[in-house]
Amino acid sequence: MSEGPLDHLIRLLAGLPGLGNRSARRIALHLLERRETLMLPLARGLEHAATEIKDCDVCGNLDSVSPCRVCCDPARDAAKICVVAHVSDVWAVERTGAYRGRYHVLGGLLSALDGVGPADLRIEALFSRLKAPSAYAAANDSKISEDVQHIEEVILALSATVDGQSTAHYIADHLQDFPIKVTRLAHGVPVGGELDYLDDGTIVTALNSRSAA
Questions:
Q1: pTM of the predicted structure, to 2 decimals
Q2: The predicted structure's pLDDT at residue 211
Q3: Domains in the chain: ranges and CATH
């Protein structure tokens, strides 16, 4: 028996994080009851986002332009790079307003259980960015000004999980020969805690209390 459009919609919604079939059915019904005011604008918004939003070639953030607006902001401290696992972690740090440097999104964490190795993440891109900022920017057709001042500090803002700490150790070990200060988030991040779920005050405390890796 072929799948009808309603069943197809429910199946797509059920595939979203945190939603099951029952929640998906309720959302589908809510959308269908508000087709003109909610469902159609949402559909247009999703299509627009799918075509316009892209990965930043420099840091891996999401934006409608590449390099992203964070990388191109001259008010940002180009001497500091905050390394995070996911774009959601960039949003979490930005929400606090406590950090005014730039970012590097790895795209995940090292995980032996899941078969995620260094080649699966943007770790080499980070090393290339640190070795020759201006060359890296030029190779990515970037208008950013990382060549104006060399990178002085890398902040490893990774979750306090086994995978997060393993990734931080791996990066810190490979940065030992770089003339760069390497720090990690310290007080405020609980063991096993995910950065994206922490409150603003906890993230601010962790940023202000970071220590050498």
A1: 0.79
A2: 73
A3: 5-52 (1.10.8.420), 62-212 (3.40.1360.10)
